[in-house]
Structures are given as structure tokens and as C-alpha cells.
Amino acid sequence: MKREFTAVYQKLGKHVVAWIEEVPGVNTQGRTTKEARENLKEALQLVLETNRSLAKGRGVDSRRESIQVVIPA
């Protein structure tokens, strides 16, 4: 499954900090934008996998479904 998120990059001194706008807590840094991008992809993947794993372990009475929302630009 492919999803799209908004990556934000900001130059801070000798590094580039980066975060995912839609997912709090997904942030990283790198020496270059390219390095920050790769680190950000890995961080996002780890957070999404962890969240899914935690949600599955919360009991048998839970139900999962996909939802779609439109976010104004």
C-alpha cells in the first residue's frame, strides 16, 4: 500500500531537520536534504509499523477500517 505524506525540511546550521506534517513525532535530521529524506522515510515507516502493532494488541473487541478525509491545502 502506498500513502502520501508531507515532508518539511529546514536548514539549521550544518544540518537539515525534517518532519512529517501529518504525523506528530516523526522527525529526524541529516547533513543533507537527501540524507534527511532517507532518515525521514525510515522514521515514518517505523512509527507506522509500531502504531499498527500496538493497535492490534489492544483487544479482540476492536474493529479496523479504512477512512478517507480531504484536508484543505
Commentary on this structure:
The protein has 73 residues and is of the alpha+beta class. The chain has a domain at 7-56. The chain is 33% helix and 22% strand. It has 1 helix and 3 strands, in the order βββα. The protein has one helix at residues 33-56; strands at 7-12, 15-20, 27-30. It has a 3-stranded antiparallel beta sheet with strand order 1-2-3, with helices on one face. Strand 2 and strand 3 (27-30) form a beta hairpin. The longest helix has 24 residues, at 33-56. The model has no long low-confidence stretch (mean pLDDT 90).
Distance between the termini: 23 Å
Beta-strand proportion: 15-25%
Residues in helix, %: 25-40%
**Nearest-angstrom radius of gyration?**
15 Å
Q: How many beta strands in the DSSP annotation?
A: 3
Give me the strand/helix succession. EEEH
> Which of globular, elongated, flat, extended, rod-shaped describes the shape?
elongated
Helix and strand content put the structural class at alpha+beta
Main β-sheet, in a few words? 3 strands, antiparallel
Summarize the structure.
The protein is an alpha+beta fold. The protein is built from 1 helix and 3 strands; from the N terminus they run E-E-E-H.
Short key terms for the protein model shown above:
73 residues, alpha+beta, three-stranded antiparallel β-sheet, 33% helix
Write the layout of secondary structure elements.
Layout lengths: L6 E6 L2 E6 L6 E4 L2 H24 L17
Antiparallel strand pairs: 1-2, 2-3
